[in-house]
Design goal:
The protein is built from nine helices and twelve strands. The chain is α/β, with parallel strands linked by helices. It folds into three domains: about 90 residues, Probable tRNA modification gtpase trme, domain 1 (Gyrase A, domain 2, 2-Layer Sandwich), CATH 3.30.1360.120; about 55 residues, no CATH class; about 140 residues, P-loop containing nucleotide triphosphate hydrolases (Rossmann fold). Strand 4 and strand 5 form a beta hairpin. Helix 3 packs antiparallel against helix 4.
């Protein structure tokens, strides 16, 4: 259907209810989807999409509508196929009819995709702060850092084999994310997990221990780790009292593991994944190292990802 589009407003995963936004010739779209011919703006309708699901649908305006099916992945896939068959194109640019201007539209879109809880209050403040604002170099530098609140930054754990990286990763994610084994080199591939560090969500990777090896698979994993290190904003160097720190030239902090067995002083933080000592301190240190507190409390505008001053 020419110029008609649809966007999934809810997360693309299992849920109780999903929300699908349709723009364009929505009367025709709704009629073809449900068979219902009469639609009144702003009136909720309980209708059937034949052979798929019973949904709540509302025509918000002549060019905007929402349908709300059950949040089953199977149902969403069938609706997506039906929309494609009708020629309704999928896009990732939702409409925000409640926005009064372009700045608010950009803010609401950023709010809808931001992963970190710390982003919410800051983003809500921006329409007022960005009004008639022109970015300085300092604003742009600060904004680039604050954008980590929208798009989770990559952080890597790096250390010699058998220093407790995987155990630490499991403690941070509170699940068995990494392989834990006494055999050095047990982690043979990069393992990633999304972690909330005091309101900042990061993508953390447990990288294979760096060592000389004839194992082809392990060497490929180590090569992959070099790519992740280059893409990361922070390297967390791991060592226990029996191992040395690896040398890196990228931004990093040093974390001494197994502090319940033996401590060491030449580190930023000492932790024990088994007892929990230092774990909260570590998560807050990660947050403050990536997004300093002074940026979170700064009263200047945030030229956030997806917003341009020309949109005002």
């Amino acid at each position: 259907m020419d110029n008609s589009t649809w966007t999934l407003l809810t997360a693309p995963k299992m849920g109780a209810i999903a929300i699908i936004q349709i723009t364009g010739d929505v009367t025709t779209c709704l009629q073809q989807l449900t068979g219902r011919t009469s639609w009144t703006n702003s009136a909720l309708q309980l209708v059937q999409i034949p052979d798929i699901d019973e949904v709540i649908a509302v025509k918000i305006s002549d060019d905007l509508a929402h349908i709300m099916p059950h949040g089953s992945i199977h149902i969403l896939n069938k609706i997506a196929t039906t929309l494609e068959t009708l020629g309704i194109q999928k896009v990732n640019a939702p409409r925000f009819p409640e926005a009064e201007n372009a700045v608010e539209r950009a803010m609401l879109h950023a709010l809808s995709i931001a992963k970190s809880p710390l982003a919410v209050e800051l983003l809500l403040q921006q329409p007022a702060l960005l009004r008639n604002a022109s970015p300085t170099d300092a604003d742009l530098a600060r904004s680039a850092v604050l954008n980590h609140l929208i798009h989770p930054p990559k952080v890597v754990l790096l250390g010699e084999p058998n220093t407790g990286k995987s155990t630490l990763m499991n403690a941070l994610t509170k699940q068995d994310t990494s392989i834990v084994h006494e055999l050095p080199g047990a982690t043979r591939d990069a393992v990633g997990a999304r972690i909330n560090c005091g309101g900042l969500v990061i993508d953390m990777y447990d990288l294979p221990g760096v060592r000389e090896s004839q194992d082809h698979i392990e060497q490929k994993a180590i090569q992959l780790s070099k790519t992740l290190i280059a893409e990361s904003v922070l390297t967390v160097l791991i060592a226990d009292a029996e191992h040395d720190w690896l040398q890196v030239s990228t931004p990093h902090i040093t974390v001494a593991t197994k502090s319940d067995i033996k401590t060491r002083a030449d580190c930023n933080i000492q932790v024990s994944a088994h007892t929990g000592i230092g774990m909260e301190e570590l998560t807050l240190a990660l947050r403050d190292e990536i997004v300093p507190q002074k940026f979170l409390t700064h009263d200047g505008p945030w030229f956030f990802s997806g917003y341009s001053p020309t949109e005002e």
